[in-house]
Specification:
The structure holds 2 protein chains of 2 kinds. By secondary structure, chain A is α+β, with helices and mostly antiparallel strands. Chain A has 14 helices and 12 strands. In chain A, a hairpin with a 2-residue loop joins strand 3 and strand 4. Chain B is α/β, with parallel strands linked by helices. Chain B has 8 helices and 10 strands. In chain B, the strands form 2 sheets. Chain B has a 6-stranded mixed β-sheet with strand order 6-7-8-3-9-10, with helices on both faces. In chain B, strands 2-1-4-5 form a 4-stranded antiparallel β-sheet, covered by helices on one side. In chain B, 47% of the residues are buried. Classes of the chains: A alpha+beta, B alpha/beta. At the A-B interface, helix 1, helix 11, helix 12 and helix 14 of A face helix 2 and helix 3 of B.
């Protein structure tokens, strides 16, 4: 009795009830592909967050109003909170008091819809700022020029726009030199930025940057600043720069203790640490869900193999009566279960690879190669493990009882 | 030459204590090579139990059993499967062919379990199917064959391993009279070729074809004689 022969018996066994074989395989397939896809989604989202943080610039520190969490505007305007002003930004550029700060740029966000003829676009980021913003935020120009300090002092209504905004407003036309009306105010486009890509939840190319004076004069008035973006001289001096910012702003805002600060600092490192730990939890959670579905698929195999063994009790009895050794019966049923999980696993890997090509809830999945091997390996082990019990039950049937079974 | 079957003091008891039932109650039986034996008796007489024990399908509560001089009663399941494959050819009332499997594959199966090479296996299977007159039905599955044909496939399967003993349990129970007489002719032919044949039946005309008739009742052998009709 060689292995090939037992393999043939196993295949024949599986073709008896094709629908059942297919459904059992489907269970494992769903399990394996969900492990691959879900870990790829988790991985992809953490990669996306990381790259969007990289885009901020490695040396940049953001100063935001308020003592609470992200962008709590209500706190920023409460009584004992002094808003961030352009003067705060100016104060931070001080080579004696703050030798580690390379530049600081005030950022004034606005909400405005831009119109060019019949085309409209509402940029996700519509900001008035200084030219130093471009370097601090890692924003490079693809075509045209940056606006200059002169543009800021003169309050000229010029703008640099992102790729998405450009396409929405001008289609394939060259936007440079054209004029759009944003919130009713005309702006002349002088440059477009390099494609940044989506950062998972926000389109980095839906961008409209203009001199802060132009935005304040025509759109927002003299409200508090949204943020001040500070660039440290190098990644190493980020911590020193942070201390300098605190010293200067504490003095200006008359802050007595660190607990009563009315502004918050965010730097690349802290954001990265927070996001990577949260995305790790996210990935583990997704993997756990997927793992459970793989387990359910495995139990499906046990169930079907038990039914198969009972259904074929008589056949097992006949085989034993004509001299089949225990080992031959055991391997036949074990191989049947393993084929089920092997085929299911292979189809699942295929499904996972195909499924990972689609963007899922705004996240581009990035396959972790280890998840493929893990999911496939586990599915084969599941076949052996969950098929083992029914197989050993079949093998240890007493021939006389198996033959009497109707 | 040692007997093919040598059963000594065979006891098979079901249940414990007061309520226990003796399916076999001290049976001694010797069958020599080349005999054609019929075992008769009403249902519950223990003839099927005796056949299961002779076929190494069931174990005894007490007693000894030698098959071809080898003691079977103390063997483990793995060794028994080898004995079943090599020494015994079974023929059952309900044919017991493997479903969805061709006649040829069914006949080859016991040889496959013995590890006989594919080419020789096929040759021997085709020869056995030829002996039972089914050369033209080699690639038919059980459902495409009549009852008589299915039983002849079973005979071919039993013969192909060249067993010491052909054990038939009510082989004609599910057959019409034409198929029955064909099958019994086949048994005569097999026995004439020197093979030991044991048939278990409750039909007199089937038993009449055997050379020796054993009658059982309540787990005991009540008579054991040469066939009176043949002797006459």
């Amino acid at each position: 009795m060689n292995f090939l022969e037992i393999l043939r018996f196993a295949f024949r066994g599986l073709t008896i009830n094709r629908l059942r074989t297919f459904l059992t395989t489907l269970g494992i397939m769903i399990g394996v592909s969900s492990v691959i896809i879900l870990t790829a989604v988790g991985n992809g989202s953490s990669k996306a967050v990381q790259s969007s943080l990289d885009r901020l610039g490695t040396n940049s520190i953001q100063v935001r109003s308020g003592s609470g969490g992200f962008g709590l505007r209500a706190r920023a305007v409460s009584n004992n909170t002094k808003p961030l002003t352009v003067d705060d930004a100016v104060a931070l550029i001080n080579p004696t008091q703050a030798p580690d700060i390379k530049s600081a740029a005030p950022v004034m966000n606005a909400n405005a819809t831009c119109v060019n003829g019949t085309s409209t676009s509402t940029p996700a980021t519509f900001s008035g700022t200084w030219p130093t913003y471009f370097e601090a935020s890692n924003t490079a120009i693809a075509k045209g020029v940056y606006f200059s300090n002169d543009d800021v002092t003169q309050g000229r209504r010029v703008a640099v726009i992102g790729n998405t905004t450009a396409t929405e407003l001008f289609g394939t036309d060259n936007p440079i030199g054209q004029t759009v009306r944003c919130g009713g105010i005309p702006f002349t486009i002088i440059g477009t930025t390099e494609v940044k890509g989506s950062s998972g939840f926000q389109d980095g190319d839906s961008l409209f940057l203009a001199p802060i004076t132009a935005v304040q004069n025509s759109l927002t008035g003299y409200q508090p600043l949204s943020t001040i973006i500070v660039e440290a001289k190098s990644a190493k001096t980020t911590d020193a720069a942070q201390t300098e910012i605190q010293t200067i702003l504490d003095a200006r805002h008359k802050v007595k203790s660190s607990a009563s600060r009315d502004y918050r600092l965010f730097n690349q490192a802290t954001l990265l640490a927070t996001s990577s730990s949260s995305s790790k939890v996210f990935t583990v959670l997704l993997a756990a869900v997927a793992g459970i579905s793989l387990l359910v698929g495995g139990i499906g195999i046990t169930n079907i193999m038990l039914v198969t063994v009972i259904e074929r009790t008589r056949e097992i009895g006949i085989r034993k009566a004509i001299g089949a050794p225990k080992r031959a019966i055991l391997s036949q049923f074990l191989i049947e279960a393993t084929i089920l999980s092997l085929v299911g696993g292979a189809l699942g890997v295929l499904g996972g690879l195909v499924g990972s090509h689609f963007t899922i809830v705004g996240v581009k999945p990035v396959i972790m190669p280890s998840s493929i091997f893990l999911a496939f390996g586990v599915s084969v082990l599941i076949g052996l493990f969950f098929g083992g019990y029914p197989a050993s039950r079949a093998a240890s049937l007493r021939p006389i009882e198996a033959l009497r079974y109707e | 030459m040692q007997p093919v079957i040598d059963v000594r003091g065979a006891v098979k008891r079901y249940g414990q204590g007061e309520s226990s039932i003796f399916a076999l109650d001290g049976v001694d039986l010797v069958i020599e090579a080349g005999e054609y034996v019929a075992i008769m008796g009403p249902s519950g007489s223990g003839k099927s139990t005796l056949m299961n024990i002779m076929g190494a399908l069931d174990n005894m509560t007490a007693g000894e059993y030698f098959l071809d001089g080898i003691e079977i009663s103390s063997m483990d399941e793995n060794a028994l499967s080898v004995v079943r494959g090599r020494k015994i050819g079974f023929i059952f009332q309900s044919f017991n062919l493997i479903p969805r499997t061709t006649a040829l594959a069914n006949v080859e199966l016991p040889m496959a379990y013995q590890g006989i090479k594919a080419a020789e296996r096929k040759m021997r299977a085709l020869k056995a199917l030829d002996v039972v007159g089914l050369s033209d039905r080699v690639n038919h599955e059980p459902t495409e064959l009549s009852g008589g044909q299915q039983q002849r496939v079973a005979v071919a399967r039993a013969l192909a391993t060249r067993p010491s003993l052909l054990l038939a349990d009510e082989p004609t129970g599910a057959l019409d009279s034409k198929s029955t007489s064909d099958l019994l002719d086949l048994f005569d032919q097999i026995n004439a070729a020197g093979r030991t044949v044991v048939v278990i039946t409750h039909e007199m005309d089937v038993a009449q074809r055997a050379k020796r008739i054993i009658r059982m009742r309540d787990g005991k052998i009540i008579s054991d004689s040469l066939n009176a009709e043949l002797a006459r």
